[in-house]
Amino acid sequence: MWHPFDPTRPDAADQHLEQVPAHTVVWFNEAQHYLLTADPRLGERLAARLRTLLHDQARGPVLVLGTIWPHYWDALTGPPPANDLDLRAQARDLLIGADIAVPDAWSTIEVRQLAAASDARLREAVENAEAGRITQYLAGVPELMQRYRNAPPLARAVLTAAIDARRLGHPLSLPHELLTRAAPSYLADVEWGQVSEDWWQDALSYTAKPCHGIAGPLIPIRPRPTEDATLPASYRLADFLQQRGAAERAAIFPPAGFWDAVAAAVSDPVTLRTIGDHAEHRGRYRRAAALYRLAVAGGDDQARWTLAAIRERAGDQSGATALRQGGTSAFVDEGAELSARAELRERAGDLPGAIDLYQRAANRGDAQSWDRVVSLLEQTTDPDGALEAALRAADQGHASALRVLAITRDRMGNPHGSEQVAQLAADRGDATIFGSLAATRERLGDLQGARELYQRGADHGDTHALCSLAELLKRNGLRDMAEQLYQQVIDSGTPSALVTLAALREQMGDKTAARQLYQRAADGGSTAALLSLAAAHERDGDLDEAEKRYQQAIQQGDVTGWWSLAGLRHQSGDLVGADQMYRRAADHGISAALISLAELAEERGDRVEAAEWALLATDHGDSDGLDMLIQLRRRMGDRAGANKMERFGLDDDGSPAASLE
Prior knowledge:
With 661 residues, the chain is mainly α. Helices cover 65% and strands 3% of the residues. The chain has 39 helices and five strands.
């Protein structure tokens, strides 16, 4: 086993990955520290080298195993930005399809078994852990959270500033200057007047103290002997405190001193843009514009375009135009720039030139360019070149190129060639391609071809393809064969497969069978099945049964059940009950519930309360909140205030801003 961490985690992995021998487990604890780096190029380079390692038959077998928090996973695997400045393409292709979800909570059955354990610590965890979160409790969470909640004002201010910095996009390493500048703004005047001259060390002596065997809430990041000891001091916030604190402070807009500290202490343009994005999403356009300006000065062209849009919305057309005209490609990823040039060649009809540029872009890390290379080569009657390019892309971890080639060949009337490529994709783990091709054949009336492709997908483990095949057989009068396939799905007992089959049965009008399947999946632990079952009862008008299922989903830890239950109460006319449920949903981080609470308040004629809820939604980062604030102002006759909000957003306190300066 190899756990790279010296001199830093990403640098160690990047420098020594070539030396990894066969029969090695590469352990990436907290994988975001390797892939979601402040310099995206380092993370992308490492992701590309990992993909190469995993597909190098001569160096295997090798297992790359990592852990990552869900919000970091989303940041690395989410869709690329609309402006084609894709800085996470390699990481996305490395991770998508390779995830193994680790439940946040133990199941009800597992918790019940622990209750009879001989170990007193396990029994204590059962009694005190929230919603089955046994592991976190055992790891020292009670002491950690108690340390935060009971912190003296000074230490609590430092921890809260750190939580806000992390939840609004600052990387793991929090600079000393950022925290020392921001923390005082979280203290009342009387509290700040009582701190000692050595207040930072007083706070750190509290935050760095270990908690029952785990690190304290906020600890210094110490340089190793091989690292530069002259770098400015920085600190790390405990992961669980970050996660819990971010949830608790989700609807709180940080004080003015926090934003001033970010502008003064943060120099990385990507971090400035990221925190600026959070300010913009919360309607604070002036704060966002200030950070975007700093990011632009640091060379971030993406911030330039975002700042131009803010200027344009504020009515400063000349300023917006100057920003857009002042952009350069000096800071744009080379692969993305080549891809953009290739697209222009393609539009002009110069396909050979476009292929060359797309190929060069792909070789420089622009993974999406592989798809265009493959498609254009196939269209220009070079099937061998297209297949070679698709295989090369797949060997580098970009399996979608094979899917693109299979679909392209199918559309060009080459079903045999399409199926050959689909088999190559399936051999590399993408069995769903057969179902996609089968659906196309079915639409074209080639039922036999569709049947064969669905079967091939099913043979490769695609449960959805198996269900689709059964539906195809049933529609064509082969009910006995269809029922045999349905029974295969049922016998598997896999909750996700049962939910898929239940949805199909419901679409075909067989409500009884659908509910039975949903129930079996729910009995297997699927909260998705419980929610589907509740929704089905709701559609049938059986609100009591629907509420029962939503309550069960809530008990199993699915907080979206509160939102659904609130809607159910609202629908039945129980506005008091709906208000209570929406509040519970809001307490669990569902910002849309804040909008619903605002709507309920307005229905009661209380526009002041409605505005308060809408502002909370805005502070949560829900743009619908600002839209509602603007509409409320207009309905209250304050058109000037509404227009200010629309153009300039909000001041820190939530009142209409007067300008971007």
